[in-house]
Amino acid sequence: MGAMKVGVSLPDDLIAFADREASRRGTTRSGLLAQLLKAEQVREQTRQYIDRHGWDVVEDAPTWREYQRHRTAHEYGDDEW
Q1: Longest C-alpha distance within the chain, in Å?
Q2: Could you tell me the pTM of the whole model?
């Protein structure tokens, strides 16, 4: 897999956090961002799988309804009604 250099502007507090966290994890700032983006990619793939296959992948219907309620609130929470 190739790598591409990307310029990103972030607030100073996030850069400071990224540097501390990268150091704590024994990686670079770029490595940390790659790990975080990979985790987000896996989370999105999981969400898509659950949405596609329905509540049969969770233990019970109430758990499925709670998942959908939370996801809907998160997805549409910023909408103005």
Answers
A1: 46
A2: 0.62
